[in-house]
Write a structure and sequence with these properties.
Helix content: 10-25%
CATH class: Mainly Beta
Number of helices: 3
Number of strands: 12
Radius of gyration: 15 Å
Largest sheet: 12 strands, antiparallel
CATH architecture: Beta Barrel
Structural class: mainly beta
Shape: globular
CATH topology: Lipocalin
Strand content: 35-45%
Distance between the termini: 32 Å
């Protein structure tokens, strides 16, 4: 059994993008490196570990996700669901822990055909951290960020995802 049902809604809320660009170009000051976290996010990241409410999801039961960061645009590629989600992200490095969010997203098939997915189109707020060459994202679903990465202070627990950078 794939963890599609458990994972689809929280991850859609986390990475609720579509194929149409939802915003303008990245401001020049962000592209010049004045926002180091945005620069660190750039590139492709593959899901390598996942926990739901503190329990590890084995590799053979989790879906395969690739995150593509280009400027302030996040594209989530899910080949198993034949979906691509695109959102314009905002990061908040003044929050502790740091946050990544988007106000809305759009969903298409991998071929670019629009798909109506209300859950994936909702706003999303999550926390993130970098550990060596990995990106760790945590969500409790929707527009409320978890208070931390350890599940202790978040009602209903969190979904913790570890991504490894894909070599160019």
């Amino acid at each position: 059994m794939k963890f599609l049902a458990l994972f689809a809604v929280p991850f859609a809320l986390i990475c609720a993008p579509g194929n149409l660009v939802l915003g303008g170009p990245v401001p020049r000051h962000l592209m010049k490196g004045e926002e180091p976290d945005l620069q660190k996010l750039q590139g492709d990241w593959k899901l390598t570990e996942m926990e739901i409410n503190g329990k590890n999801v084995p590799p053979d039961t989790r879906i395969e996700i690739v995150l593509e960061f280009r400027g302030n645009k996040l594209t989530v590629v899910d080949k198993q669901q034949n979906q691509r989600r695109i959102a314009v992200i905002r990061i908040d490095t003044t929050a502790n822990p740091t946050r990544l969010a988007w106000p809305e997203a759009r969903v298409t098939t991998l071929k670019g055909v629009p798909v109506r997915d209300e859950a994936a189109e909702l706003p999303c707020v999550m926390i993130y951290t970098f550990k060596a060459d990995t990106l760790v994202l945590a969500t409790s679903g929707g527009n409320q960020a978890p208070r931390g990465f350890d599940n202790k202070d978040t009602p209903g627990g969190i979904q913790l995802m570890t991504f490894t950078r894909v070599p160019k």
